[in-house]
Fold each of these.
Amino acid sequence: MNTLAIIGAQWGDEGKGKITDYLAKQADYVVRYQGGNNAGHTIKFGGKTHALHLVPSGIFQADTKNILANGMVIDPVALCDELALIESHGFSTDTLHLSDRAHIVMPYHRSLDGMYESFKKEKVGTTAKGIGPAYSDKTLRRSVRVHTYIDETRLRLHLKENLPHVNALLKQHGFKSYDVETLIEESRPGRERLKSYVSDTSLILNEALNEHRTVLFEGAQGTMLCMDHGTYPFVTASSPTAAGIPLGAGVPPRSINRVLGIVKAYTTRVGGGPFPTEIEGDTANTIRKRGNEYGTTTGRPRRIGWLDAVQLKHSCRVNGFTGIALTLFDVLSSLDSLKIATAYSLDGKTIRSMPADPADLARVIPIYETLPGFKDDISKVRSFSDLPKDAKTYIEKIEALLDVPVQIFSVGPSREETVVRANPYKTGGDGND
Ligand code: GDP
Ligand code: IMO
Ligand code: MG
């Protein structure tokens, strides 16, 4: 089977969009399977930069089909705006399929997102897109799915039954409430626009798998933002790991045979929560500036830190990476030395795995291995052998620490600034072919 999963190995923004776009030319399908427009995936080619939030990063390939699968939460207004923007740049959106079973982010979910944040002493720092409340309504079995949303009669019935509970909660805490008919009226253009994209995407994908088509699964967020394996409660409301794919796309678990972990050459995090290798000061500012580390979705400055092998091993474990794509490698050039955390110290004890309690994770002291930096600009490098010696050493150190091959490294935001050492579709792990 020819499938590949693209998974964020850290706290999101690892360059999943760039790598997905690069690998999409070999894919018949690109599939988003979780999250919503909290994601911001940046793609650069032909001198233009595109920011995608909901639409899969295969949309710029004429022959690749793009699937918004059942595990996603869809804000219809945001999706319509994104489709219009893509079309205004001259790309067709006819290759898109939207699952009839995906869940809808309603306008009141954004209000609830703000409300729940206001209750918290230590803020999650959500993207305020309504993602957590939309997934909560899914769990509470009172969410609107796409098939209901596009049917006005059923949507009205649904809202009449469920909106009073949402309104009661909002009113109790001083937030504005919503009216059924206004919601119906305001959603009409979006409902009409999206109808033509709606399909049973699990059927489409299973048929594609049976025909041995190449399918690329594009994770959003990152492993450390996973509800189960991340730094709970400072996480998103979905499962961005490889384990989320079968559930979120309606494909058999055995269809995921290779998993490419996207690893930023350092670490960033946006929003609240523990971050053991976080640094501040000159080095952090240099990295933030060179890496343009400001959120694609919210514009917030990203927190910066050194690479963390304890955290990455945790990611390798829960995802079973068969390869790594190392991104933003060029950003590290010019630094005198580079640090990688290889263990933590907690209350005087050396530990090699991440404590569950965020308060403990916030207290750990990283134990670093220091490597020499590389001075040369590597953005023009197009093969491993052309890298400066100390840059090679950094890659080899990561491979040794994680026991996973670095199959791709990226030396700039553009498509052509990508170096493939081994084809991630065809190599790494046992592949189960
Ligand atoms: P995603 O959410 O994982 O898709 O990542 P984002 O797009 O939010 O953030 C990654 C940022 O790094 C974007 O601005 C990309 O254009 C940029 N980027 C990706 N790869 C590279 C790289 O190798 N070098 C540099 N300098 N920038 C990169
Ligand atoms: P991509 O796909 C980085 C973070 C938010 C916040 C937490 C919960 O671009 O890598 P949410 O709105 O999801 O309830 O916020 O998760 N977060 C991301 N951080 N990249 C993302 O997506 C993120 N999506 C959510 O900042 O800390
Ligand atoms: Mg992003």
Amino acid sequence: MCGIVGVTGNDNAVQILLKGLEKLEYRGYDSAGIYVNDLQGNDYLIKRKGHISNLEAAVGPEVHGSVGIGHTRWATHGVVSVANAHPQFSEDHRFYLVHNGVIENYKELKATYLSDTTFASQTDTEVVVQLVDHFVRTQNLSTRDAFLKTLGLLEGSSYAFLMIDSLDPDTLYVAKSKSPLLVGLGDGCNVVCSDAPAMLDVTHDFLALHDGEMVTIKPNSVEIIDQNGNAVSRKPFHVDMDPSETEKGTYPYYMLKEIDEQPNVLRKIASTYTKESGEPNFDDKMLSALNQADRIYIVGAGTSYHAGLVGKKMFEKLAHVPTEVHIASEFAYDDPLLSKKPFFIFLSQSGETADSREVLVNVNAKDYPSLTITNVENSTLYREASYTLLLHAGPEISVASTKAYTAQIAVEAVLAKALGEIKEQTIAEDFDIRQQLGFAATGMQAIIDDKGRIENIAKKYFVKAPKAFYIGRGIDQTVSLEAALKLKEISYVHAEGFASGELKHGTIALIEEGTPVVGIITQKKTAALTRSNLQETMSRGAQALTIVRQGLSQPGDTIVTTDINELITPLLSVVPAQLIAYFTSLNKGLDVDKPRNLAKSVTVE
Ligand code: M6R
């Protein structure tokens, strides 16, 4: 949530900041701003509501400088307005600050130290920049010491800060706790960003910052100190990514590009995590730790949580290990009763979700083994877990997650097979995951090639619908949750995913003439039951539609997917639902990639 960029020592600061903000726009897009200084006494503060393009349009040719900071906002404290957009500044316009996170005790700090200060915004962030100014003026502290003193007062808060003192402008003051932040090492310049793709035009070498650290950055130096004031030396990591991977090319929206990429992602996962013989290919140490667990706990949020629900079925069927799946934000503060030998699996596309990270911090404090399955190398959840597996899905930019979901399921499937083999479960030994992922990739491509027909379905049944349902049983029910989430988050159709047998216990009261109800039918055991539940909705006026595996199809089915092993059918049944959501949003004229009220990476709890 919120994207941060900064640069010092580059005459192209304005372009670097704006380009960086464009790349980070998926993190928040309700307002944006930059502060730039040319070190010759000229500085510029420009902020606008709405997308980065509004900010870009407001930055005239006169705006120039070699140092600056920028921000794209997802509002937490204070409405969406120019005043609440960042950078926030001190009353005397000496200090400028951008922030990602939440200052929990900002009201107390304001009351204690700043009763005489005039505030220009409703944000928690402004309290921080006013405090720095306050300590510099009233206690004669240096900027660095005032910044450090302020950091020491922020109880239980999450923050990534980037600050400039306009009286000594070529220095960037940086601090981080819980919210992600990287320092990029350039040639004669240094940069700061929430996420590496924002700065790949400047550098591919980054330093990850740890919680509690404070950094002073000049064009040719980076000094990190830990929370006890000790100097920290850290090796940079190299990001081997082509900047074009984050472009959408000829696609109208990232979401469509990312849906289309799914067959290749499955092939990549098959070749990375299985040998040519078809055997899983994982680190033995990780497998042995997993094998010692008496229960697996999968933790995630949103789409990642839904992928975890599919994972549970696979770990229980293939490896016979009891598996619980938890919503990260619930698990973090619920203190659930754990088994004697728990093993935690964190699913997170971004690797930065604050709710999941909070659980991992507790897991680490208790020394439990953990595995993060993520798409982002060197992200916080990647760095802090005992073991990691990458999704290899390539950058996912659209707020609606698509390829990460199918990639998570594919990696879980290979892992469950590996564990099942260690436990000598025949069902796992007979499950040729490499071959099945190949079949799934081909089946996905067939659905994607038929997208014109799916667009017609979206136009006919969903674009004007005020509400819709996806229903199914077992693994199909888990996909119904993801299908409904896709539809609601980008098309604003009130959608629910439901256990088809549970509808008649209350929710069927919502069915009206024409309400679209999509039955997901991929499991032999429950196919007839779901069909009869669909009939019940039709008798009450619903427009019934089906997404069915070929072997179970009947004349009149709406979308038929190819046959693959029943354990991995979500890889196919979700794709029509992704496309229905995409085309519904598109045909309603909405911004598919940046739906209202949302942000891609949810870095506040
Ligand atoms: O990066 P993560 O996978 O941890 O993100 C979790 C959720 O915020 C994310 O899946 C969200 O639900 C998506 N917008 C769904 O499309």
Amino acid sequence: MKRALITGITGQDGAYLSQLLLGKGYEVFGVIRRSSHRGVEDHRLRWLGIADRVTLLDGDLADLSSLVRIVKEVQPDEVYNLAAQSFVASSWRQPILTANITAIGVTHMLEALRAEKPDARFYQASSSEMYGLIQEEMQSETTPFYPRSPYAVAKLYGHWITVNYRESFGMHASSGILFNHESPLRGVEFVTRKVTDGVARIKLGLATELRLGNVDAKRDWGHARDYVKAMWLMLQQETPDDYVVATGRTTTVRDMCRIAFEHAGLDIERHLVIDPAFYRPAEVDVLLGNPAKAHRALGWQPETSLEQMIVEMVEADLARLRETTR
Ligand code: NAP
Ligand code: G4F
């Protein structure tokens, strides 16, 4: 039985990846941060019905000693480094924390592996945010980076240190440059979930408006359930490498919103309010990924359209809110 260690197991991708790996017969271990609210951190794993099937170990990406202890204990075959301060907007308010976790935390994880399990295969959760002010209309593995937020700068460090450990120490370390991916398990601060939760609230009479920032921004959105398959495929390759994972289609925030409002039978013009409070100090106007290498080398294809995903998210939010307001 293969053993996988996931940092960020309590996040969106960690939950879907755990589900995928359990289905493949892996023994799944995850790093969980100590919290005074113990009992709620595993809500995504519970939503998927897998909380009892994974082993959670106390640790933190900021604490190298905890990672060394965990790697020594678990002796993983594969390590997926998904933990991060992952919300771009927060990264201007907490730039140093973002650097400590999202950048230096990657080196902590790599160092723990180098010391305790150097032959483990390593996946780094890199991001399309690294392209920022885009240098090519469609971004691929060879497009130059131009990060536009403290988050993206930190992710760029994480990406290059992964490449560097691969080249310096021969580690099987791969970097997945994933474009935006969402699901009913997305954090409610991210725009798709904010929209589907907001639309569900309006539909149920719990709110009258939805306040958003720059609705002209464009993103290449896919489903997290599809994207975690690409992570796993990367670690099954003989040779480690870097891959863009995207759909190859870009949509404005406004058009993504329209899908949600229309599905709920609501008029977007009556409820959407533009609020400059949600504008960012520097924006990433458009992202559009070229997943040709992932198609060719990994045989990976996205299976869920943006429309299907937004409908799934609205329905999940309606069900959740009906349950909690009963
Ligand atoms: P997420 O839902 O925000 O999950 C982040 C996870 O990191 C959570 O489990 C969180 O734990 C954990 N974490 C944060 N700080 C930590 C620390 N100091 N020590 C240990 N764990 C810590 O993010 P996601 O959407 O699943 O994304 C997974 C990864 O992919 C992230 O690295 C993100 O930056 C990257 N990424 C995401 C996307 C996307 O569109 N979703 C695209 C490209 C790259 P708590 O539950 O305790 O908060
Ligand atoms: O949903 P977002 O907050 O995601 P963003 O900034 O693209 O970052 C996400 O995807 C990255 C991959 O490219 C990940 F690396 C990162 O961890 C995260 O998962 O915002 C998307 C767009 C932005 O242009 C933002 O300005 O939506 C725009 N937007 C407009 N109004 C809003 C809002 N975003 C949020 N969160 N909230 C708003 O009210």
Amino acid sequence: MLNLVLFGPPGAGKGTQSEMLIKTHNLVHLSTGDILRKEITNKTKLGLEAKKLMDQGILVPDNVVIGMIDSQLENNIKSNGFIFDGFPRTKEQALALDKLLLKKNTAISAMISLKVDDQELIKRLLERGEISGRSDDQNEEIISNRISEYNKKTAPLKLFYNNQQKLYEVNGLGTINDITMKVNTVINKL
Ligand code: B4P
């Protein structure tokens, strides 16, 4: 199985690149952000709770997102592998993911980390906010909170995967196709 963690700050291109890669490699795309937004649209109890946090740029509790990923793995047991997009975002989530995959006799193959500077992240997210109306992309204050949550709680995971010799860093600036080519070069060497 090919199991990839697509990693990077908010707006780095994780969702965008995931869409490109699932076709080529026949993988299941698991985006915790997308799953949470579906819950919000359906106005479930979980969705209403999550919305309060997401609208402030704060991470949703670990037990909630770990439970979501657990059930998605169960539902896609026969797949070629997974792209984890926006998950894990904390050490607890990374440890839980390793355990869940071990139970299925598999493991993370690589973490691909997209590197983009803060100025470009803010520009991309404000642009998306205008087009999509996404509530967490609407102003610089919320976006700065998301970047600071990333720096505090999520960025340290690079060390976690580097210690397992699974970290690959890719420059996330340039055209979407150029970045996909660079990511594919990494995947083809695995
Ligand atoms: P996510 O949905 O994961 O949102 P994101 O970090 O903004 O990344 P996304 O994948 O959507 O954007 P992309 O970079 O592709 O998270 C939202 C919130 O949900 C979090 O803040 C948190 O509250 C909660 N959450 C989600 N997962 C969680 C977890 N595991 N634990 C706890 N809480 C969790 O693209 C951004 C924009 O850039 C797009 O408009 C795109 O078109 C553009 N773009 C992409 N590549 C580009 C390029 N090369 N050049 C120019 N523009 C580009």
